[in-house]
Amino acid sequence: PTPLQVETRTLAMLHGLLRQLHAACARLAAGARSFPSSVQETAGHVRHGVEGVQASLSHARSFHDLSGLVLAQSRERVTRAQLSIDELLEYVGQHAPLPWLVGPFAPALVEYPEDVPVEMAKWEGCVTVG
């Protein structure tokens, strides 16, 4: 492939990744509605930061369209978003009950007391971990 083809593919991948990241952040912000306002605010900051990166880079048609300033600002926004996501994960890890995190999709991770019978019929067809 020519350098122009590599550049075009790289930018197309960048735009695709930014769309996926934006969609994931929108889902994160929507999912945070059941958490305290500080957590919702953090999720909103993540979404806003990703939207800023997407807006800054979405119009680039070549690497020459991306100034050093735009790249530095984008890197800073992504770093702040990553730190905020780390805060969210720490909060969820400390405050969310285990079944909420695990869900019904990984029954092997949920421990049951030995003297309580478990209805295995409801787990039929589930893929277990382990």
Automatic annotation (TrEMBL):
<protein>
    <submittedName>
        <fullName>PLIN3 protein</fullName>
    </submittedName>
</protein>
<dbReference type="InterPro" id="IPR004279">
    <property type="entry name" value="Perilipin"/>
</dbReference>
<dbReference type="GO" id="GO:0019915">
    <property type="term" value="P:lipid storage"/>
</dbReference>
<dbReference type="GO" id="GO:0005829">
    <property type="term" value="C:cytosol"/>
</dbReference>
<comment type="similarity">
    <text>Belongs to the perilipin family.</text>
</comment>
<dbReference type="GO" id="GO:0010890">
    <property type="term" value="P:positive regulation of triglyceride storage"/>
</dbReference>
<dbReference type="Pfam" id="PF03036">
    <property type="entry name" value="Perilipin"/>
</dbReference>
<keyword id="KW-0551">Lipid droplet</keyword>
<dbReference type="GO" id="GO:0005811">
    <property type="term" value="C:lipid droplet"/>
</dbReference>
